[in-house]
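seq as requested:
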Amino acid sequence: MLYRLKESGYQAYLVGGGVRDMLLGREPKDFDVATNARPEEIKELFRSCHLIGRRFRLAHVRFGRDIIEVATFRALPVPGEEEGEAPGEDLHIENGRIMRDNIYGTVEEDAWRRDFTINSLYYNIADFSVVDYAGGLEDLQAGWIRLIGDPVQRYREDPVRMLRAVRFAAKLGFRIHPGTEAPLFELGYLLDDIPPARLFEEVLKLFLGGCAVETFELLRHYRLFQHLFPLTEEDLAQEHEGFPVKLVVRALANTDERIAADKPVTPAFLFAALLWGPMRRAIEEIRTESMTDFEAIQEAGGIVISRQAQRVALPKRYTLPMREIWAMQPRLTQISGKRPLSLLGHPRFRAAYDFLLLRGEAGEDVQELCEWWAAFQEVNADQRQAMLRSGVAGTAKKRRRRRRKKPAGAAEADMAAE
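struct tokens:
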């Protein structure tokens, strides 16, 4: 792609996170290209090109399964083109935020328009050099996350930059420069005006990048988490003996572990954990004597999801499995008759069981249930029938008697044998 642009008479650079990660010795996850070719000219060069965006006009060029994002160099705002003075069709500023920006310029102007210095590095294929206009190489060596320009103005232009600062700090293990850091404590409210759909995409980047625990801690430190998950933050403020912080942190740690092991992760499970505390509170508030556990969870789930979606959008492809995971929690307490056998074949059983384990690790009183289901999945058909007759209390009591008679380490063998 770079060479085709160059051979067609255009400038072409690799830019952004791909260059940054290569300089840090990390494997880039994607590559972005910057050029002086206009979006329409890029589309003429590449058949697989699709133009997207109204706020920022971009070209997406498909190569096999990969999509390369190609952006045209953008210019610095012209003095006098301030809010309400000359928005025009290409530049529109509203309440300090850039709503539309398709003013094109040079590579140097483009460098100063980017957000962080370490993301403003350009690899030039013409002479295989790294071009640095904003001091990104120095900050890369020093381990600083630093905004280009006035931090308050840059955050007001696009409040999502606050989330990006936190994400890069957690991902790279860098420190946020004091000038870039100070406004984070005061400007979190700007996130309230960001469309929920955009915040959903940002939340996925925050928590599915392999450093969710560190990201969560930084978000709470800078008082930004409350603007993404206000119900969860309200619940965290009333923690008792580590719950629900322990559950949220354990869910995030589990996500990090699975990503590190190259195992699949589902946002539905993570969202179910993040909102479990608010769910418990909602159940207490709406429950009546005539309600079953299932009915209470269904009604509370609808309330919590509806309120959360006002801040961060929750697509139905995730809310449906979330509600199934929640709804199966009381069903997992029914350990007699045919119910346990039918639950084993449920498509959402494994996620619901893992969620039960998570609750146990967080301190909820479900440890005996966790042990019973762990054993129930391991034993043969005859032993399962025996467990269904004895129930969780009897099974747990029998294991405790055997532990007193046997040396340490024999409990696992007992569980497998029952």
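Residues 381-405 form the longest helix (25 residues).
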